[in-house]
Design goal:
The protein has 13 helices and three strands, in the order αααααααβββαααααα. 25% of the residues are buried. It is globular. A hairpin with an 8-residue loop joins strand 2 and strand 3. The protein has helices at 2-14, 19-36, 45-59, 63-80, 106-114, 119-131, 135-139, 170-183, 201-214, 225-236, 241-248, 253-256, 273-280, and strands at residues 146-147, 152-155, 164-167.
Length: 285
């Protein structure tokens, strides 16, 4: 099994997949090997389908785990063992459930910022919201990524290993300058216990949760909700969905269009036909 794991790890690295993907895929291959209980080069397609039934019926894993396992096994058997003639269409993916996020209003976002008594905590949250950044992207920022001459923030190697630029808010720039004078960051814009290490994701999540609780936010929200709010608020302000797609770094427009289902301008500002029926009723003489 060790030789297969080494072969798989090398293949993932050669294909340029992220270290995080490697950390997820290799244990899934190991779990499948335990399930079949024999050398992987003797496996047949029916073994993969049996494993998928095991995941879905017996273990009842979520669609994300199920689909990651399908990706990992397809990749291993096709790329590492050369099983290009297998009917991989019979090793399916589960359909993703669409769960609409709860959206923070602009007033609620402002209350969260105001609830931060620590300047560093406040500027971390403001930066994420200002550019619609993911948690990992926010914490990976370097001081040099803030380009005040062009008023942009460089997001290097975001999800999908793609670089992009997002706008630099004038309000954020002023707050960042205040933060810079007080904290003097070196290697990382938002450092952790030492200036040589970035702030931990768990710490950033805790910062958000504490601020949201102080702001009396009752919605089911997390640090990522700042990104959802960024996209929704832009859409409500009339920004073209293609522009929002580019700012968020989405590969597919379909991913961005989920915000049309939660934007106020697309929902509550659209008049219900019931109102027109009621208005057409004859008035009593």
């Amino acid at each position: 099994m060790e030789s297969f794991e080494k072969q798989f790890t090398d293949t993932l690295a050669i294909r340029g997949l992220s270290p995080r993907t490697q950390v997820v895929y290799v244990p899934m291959l190991r779990d499948f090997a335990r399930f079949v209980g024999r050398p992987l080069d003797t496996v047949v397609p029916e073994d993969l389908r049996a494993y998928q039934r095991h995941l879905a019926v017996e273990r009842q894993v979520g669609f994300s785990h199920f689909n990651q396992a399908a990706c990992a096994l397809r990749l291993f058997f096709r790329e590492c063992l050369g099983r290009t003639d297998w009917p991989f269409e019979r090793i399916p993916f589960q359909k993703k459930r669409r769960i609409l996020p709860e959206i923070l209003s602009q007033e609620e976002v402002a209350r969260i910022f105001d609830a931060c008594s620590n300047l560093k905590h406040k500027v971390v949250l403001m930066t994420a919201y200002s550019g619609g950044l993911r948690l990992g992207e926010t914490l990976a920022l370097l001081p040099s990524d803030i380009d005040s001459s062009r008023m942009v923030i460089r997001v290097e190697q975001g999800k999908g290993r793609k670089d992009r630029y997002v706008m630099l808010s004038q309000v954020l720039l002023q707050t960042l300058r205040e933060y810079w004078r007080k904290f003097q960051p070196l290697s990382w814009l938002f450092y952790g216990r030492t200036k040589q290490k970035p702030l931990a994701p768990s710490t950033a999540e805790k910062i958000f949760k504490i601020a949201a609780r102080k702001a009396c936010i009752t919605k089911n929200v997390s640090f990522h909700s700042l990104r959802h709010a960024f996209a929704t608020h832009l859409l409500e302000d009339g920004t073209n969905v293609r522009v929002i797609q580019a700012l968020l770094g989405h590969r597919s427009l379909t991913t961005t269009q989920i915000y049309t289902h939660v934007a106020r301008t697309y929902v509550s500002d659209t008049r219900s036909p019931l109102d027109r029926i009621e208005n057409k009723k004859p008035t009593a003489e």
